[in-house]
Write a structure and sequence with these properties.
There is one protein chain. By secondary structure, the protein is mostly helical. It has a domain of about 40 residues: Orthogonal Bundle (Histone, subunit A), CATH 1.10.20. The protein contains three helices and two strands, in the order αααββ. The chain has a two-stranded antiparallel ribbon.
Length: about 100
C-alpha cells in the first residue's frame, strides 16, 4: 500500500526534514516497500518468543578500579596553574545565562 503525501510529510516531520513536493513523491516510492515490510513483520506471532535485549550471551568484563598514587594530584597542585580560583575550585567564564 503506497504511502500518502501526508504520511511522508509526517515521517519527514518526525525526522526533522524539510522536503520539497518532488522529494515527497520520490521518498513515497522509496519508503512504501520499507513500511510494507514492517507491516508484514507485525503479522508474525511472537507470543511464545521470550523478550530479550541481548542475544549473544556476551557479558561485560569489568576490572576493579585501583587508584595509582603516582597519578594523583593534590588540590593545590591541580589548582596551581589556574588563572583564577575560588574556595578550592576553578573559576571559568559562565556559559549559561539566567533568563528569569
Amino acid at each position: 500500500m503506497a504511502l500518502s503525501h501526508d504520511e511522508v510529510l509526517h515521517l519527514a516531520k518526525l525526522s526533522k526534514l524539510t522536503l520539497s513536493s518532488e522529494e515527497v513523491l520520490h521518498f513515497a516510492d522509496q519508503l512504501t516497500p520499507v513500511v510494507d515490510y514492517f507491516r508484514e513483520l507485525n503479522e508474525i506471532d511472537t507470543s511464545n518468543v521470550p523478550e530479550t535485549s541481548q542475544t549473544t550471551g556476551l557479558v561485560d568484563v569489568l576490572r576493579t578500579d585501583e587508584v595509582d598514587a603516582s597519578w594523583v594530584l593534590s588540590q593545590e597542585e591541580a589548582l596551581s596553574q589556574a588563572l583564577k580560583t575560588h574556595n578550592g575550585y576553578f573559576v571559568v567564564p559562565a556559559i549559561f545565562t539566567r533568563t528569569s
